Amino acid sequence: MKAYINHIIETIMAHSADFENAGLTPPATIDIYMGQPARPEDFEFALPAVFIDYSADYDGETLDVIVHVLQDFGADTENFAPQRVNGLDFVKYLSVLKKCLYGLKMRPVFNPLRLYQETPMPPDFYYYHQLTFRCNINTTLYCELERYVDVEPVLPVLENVRLKTTMT
What we know:
The protein is built from six helices and five strands. Strand 4 and strand 5 form a beta hairpin.
């Protein structure tokens, strides 16, 4: 999972221009989810922030990647607000992030991510949404690769394994 989470973080960072082209600020903080939205006083982070978590079902061979997205409250979104269109930028932000992660893959273990669920969370200090992406995983190969967890870089190890498995 170490390599996959790093791959997700690098992919989001590589799409900074997509946020800027949409008139948005790229994520200032990208990190592992550790409860930051519920306890912001216990963590240091800047907004907009993206926190990544996951849940694996090895029997069902599925992996859920949960992306916690936190953004500043923007302009008001009421029907009478003069800046209502700008207030809806948080929706545009989610769209850019979904576009950047949808279809992300790390073969041969993880199939491409597909958007599974989008959930608005209760706002306390900021707009907060969870995007859940799902993919199928090859659990046999994943367990085999766990032996390489501290090998750097891990992505070439995955590529070598793919080549070996396709040759047999």
